Task: inverse folding
């Protein structure tokens, strides 16, 4: 069994309020949970309307499987409109 988590620091564009940010974050997290069956939480930058930090955690049988899932999650986030991934930090055990 392998456990891993990845933290994404994301720049948000065209967000005018924290309420609008929460709407975008909620849609993104729900989409990722639905498509990847992963644990996802907003881990930082709660009071910033321009920045978002989310962490994704998964447990899989093989290292290859978890690496592929994290690549798919990152690709999904990158293709989300109005977001830019600035930093990615990962750990797998």
Result:
């Amino acid at each position: 069994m392998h456990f891993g988590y990845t933290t994404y620091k994301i720049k948000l564009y065209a967000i005018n309020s924290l309420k609008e940010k929460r709407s975008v974050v909620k849609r993104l997290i729900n989409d990722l949970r639905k498509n990847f069956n992963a644990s996802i939480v907003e881990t930082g930058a709660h009071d910033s309307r321009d920045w978002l930090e989310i962490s994704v955690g998964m447990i899989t049988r093989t290292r290859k499987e978890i690496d592929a899932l994290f690549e798919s999650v990152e690709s999904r986030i990158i293709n989300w409109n109005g977001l830019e991934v600035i930093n990615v930090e990962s750990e797998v055990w």
Q: What stands out?
A: The chain has a mean pLDDT of 92. The domain at 2-92 is CATH 3.30.70.1120 (Alpha-Beta Plaits). The longest strand covers residues 2-12. The chain has two helices and four strands.
